[in-house]
Amino acid sequence: MAKSPPSKPLLATDKPVRSRPRKPRDPAQPNLPLDPMPTRIEPCLALLKPRPPNGPEWAFEIKWDGYRLAVHIEPKGVRVVTRGGHDWTDRFPAIAKAAKNLNVATAIIDGEAVVLDEQGRSDFGLLQQSLGGRGGTRTSDEAIFMAFDLLYFDGHDLRKLEFTARRHLLEGLIKSRDNVIRLSEEIEADGDRLFAAACEHGLEGIIAKDRESRYRSGRLGDWLKIKCIQSDGFAIIGYEHSFVARAGIGSLLLAARHGRKLVYVGSVGTGFSERSAWQVREALDKLKVKNPPVEYSGRRKYIVWVKPTLVAEIEYRAWTKDGKLRHSSFKGLRDEHDNDTVYAFDQI
């Protein structure tokens, strides 16, 4: 079994922040009411921006490229929940086991499951391989969990606390940089310089978080993402059949959301391995339809149309003036249980 390389310290820290040992409770002191533990919390999503914000009110972290997860540590055990609310505890047994060993009775930890490459960078393709591809049934022992927020802790809902306070408690809970559950380091740096360094080292980008913000579900601007290379999910609406390309796929035709409908945004013909091309072809052949699911005015010869139910993760450099992807490359299929949304033109 391949072992993930240890993460490199991104922020020098002293001893882990821990609360003092508990003393016997004074009977005259009233009990603080406990908050009911949520069965699921919709995640706070980062809003895409072209440049990092500036100012002391912003905290910065590396952007991880994996599956967004919430680890629930409950009295009855541990649950690993996907962004869409699906229980994937059995898919990430190492993460679940590590959560049981944390010194806490109840908690909900927000973070990202990733697999690191030899340089310590998160790699979405490696994560998918560890799970057996889209719709696979394998368990991933290679994945680690990068924790970046604490939403519930020892019977108390922390979402109304400012981010700085939640972060303080999280740093006290996650003590080691080399375990399966690791702290996503906060980096004290100028946003522009950090972004330039992240891009120079081949990282996906950075995340900026408002230090005074509460935890609010949705894409409301409390968290921002700044990407070195753009990467988003797009619906596959068809493919161009080829007699020479891998698995007969010359290119995939892609669509994004514009309001309530899908619109064609171009195609992608690079980034496929032999294995991934056949996985995509097998999935698409089950979704064939006679007519294009979106308005399409291009060449139709050799085009095979499909229901737009599969979401492909696509890297790209920019957009053309007429709304098409430039220099696109296929990264993988998003799993339906990951619930990753299709790119929307009104999301930025």
Automatic annotation (TrEMBL):
PROSITE patterns: DNA_LIGASE_A3
Superkingdom of origin: Bacteria
Catalytic reactions of this protein: ATP + (deoxyribonucleotide)n-3'-hydroxyl + 5'-phospho-(deoxyribonucleotide)m = (deoxyribonucleotide)n+m + AMP + diphosphate
Top-level EC class as recorded in UniProt: ligase
Pfam hit, one: DNA_ligase_A_M
Record domain ATP-dependent DNA ligase family profile: where: 145-227
Region (Disordered): 1-37
Protein name: DNA ligase (ATP)
